[in-house]
Amino acid sequence: MKTTLRPLVAALAAAAAFLALPAHAQGAQEPIQPIAPAVVKNPAMVELGKKLWFDPRLSKSGFISCNSCHNLSMGGSDNLKTSIGHNWQEGPINSPTVLNSSMNVAQFWDGRAGNLKEQAGGPIANPGEMAFTHELAVDMLNSIPGYQAEFKKVFSKQKIDIDQVTDAIAAFEETLVTPNSRFDKWLKGDANAITKTELEGYKLFRDSGCVACHNGAAVGGNSFQRMGLVEAYKTSNPAEGRAAVTGKDADRFNFKVPTLRNVELTYPYFHDGAADTLGQAVDTMGRVQLGKNFTKDENAKIVAFLKTLTGDQPQIGMPVLPPSSDATPRPTPFDKKK
């Protein structure tokens, strides 16, 4: 059996095993679980992380913040095919949602960051994104009395360092979960939380084998899978997936399975942003991952189900950022040097 077909066979076997369960047992063994609300362990660190999240002074231009590419008003993404970086550079890959990212097996499409802390420092120093350096970012923060006082309160240290910065941003990101979707309410026993059409869409999604990859509380994010299991996926995007991290040819085009939570908000879809709509995404995934051509009616039902995965969006009060001091380096938004 070809290696690339094994996940498909496993998916169909899992669906068949699920359907063989007695009706009363199926409800207790759904492959998707409800999202639990965030538990804030250190409010002061989360508040500091929120300020850093929205602070564009962490970029060379003084214009780009974490929220630029992961807009919390837009499902934690930017709704662009690929993001816009420093000096209007075209990003190499679609910006994944930050919502529920704490549930991911790793961060970035290729999983090069093992956790949120590792991920948080990446864009700051990436010349194609925020285009700063960790040293310059820390110097900037150390020059601002308001940040000095807040970091000292949270970390009990005299000087700010990049570890503190990434710890705080990660603590804030951990709060960005979206519980209480209509589908969660259905999972918890509210039979009226979703419609008949949406339930039929879920059964199609489950029984077709989509749940082999899109499962768990985040409905994805917990594994890496090859894009194009049954039919080759054609794209001009140069991203290699896990192979760029592991150096193994077997990992080429293996990407982290994206979460489907709030998926109606996070268009366009796939690592290359090639699918503009959920309908297009469902059609493509059916063909290239499952070898299945969904009918127009089946596609519409699956899309209807996917829209039930939109949960309570984080209610974020915009922070008031501490003002720069006279010693704070000024940004250089029009510097053409990369």
TrEMBL record:
Posttranslational modification: Binds 2 heme groups per subunit.
Record's keyword annotation contains rRNA-binding: no
Region (Disordered), start-end ranges: 314-338
Cellular compartment(s): Periplasm
Residues involved in heme c 1 binding: 66, 69-70, 86
Cytochrome c domain boundaries: 44-152, 196-310
Pfam families xrefs: CCP_MauG (PF03150), Cytochrom_C (PF00034)
Organism: Comamonas terrigena
Binding-site positions, heme c 2: 210, 213-214, 285
Protein keywords: Electron transport, Heme, Iron, Metal-binding, Oxidoreductase, Periplasm, Peroxidase, Signal, Transport
Taxonomic lineage: Bacteria, Pseudomonadati, Pseudomonadota, Betaproteobacteria, Burkholderiales
Record's signal peptide: 1-25
GO molecular function: cytochrome-c peroxidase activity; electron transfer activity; heme binding; metal ion binding
InterPro entries: Cyt_c-like_dom (IPR009056), Cyt_c-like_dom_sf (IPR036909), Cytochrome_c_Peroxidase/MauG (IPR051395), Di-haem_cyt_c_peroxidsae (IPR004852), MauG/Cytc_peroxidase (IPR026259)
A single Gene Ontology CC term: periplasmic space
Record's protein name: Cytochrome C biogenesis protein CcsA
Highest taxon listed in the record's lineage: Bacteria
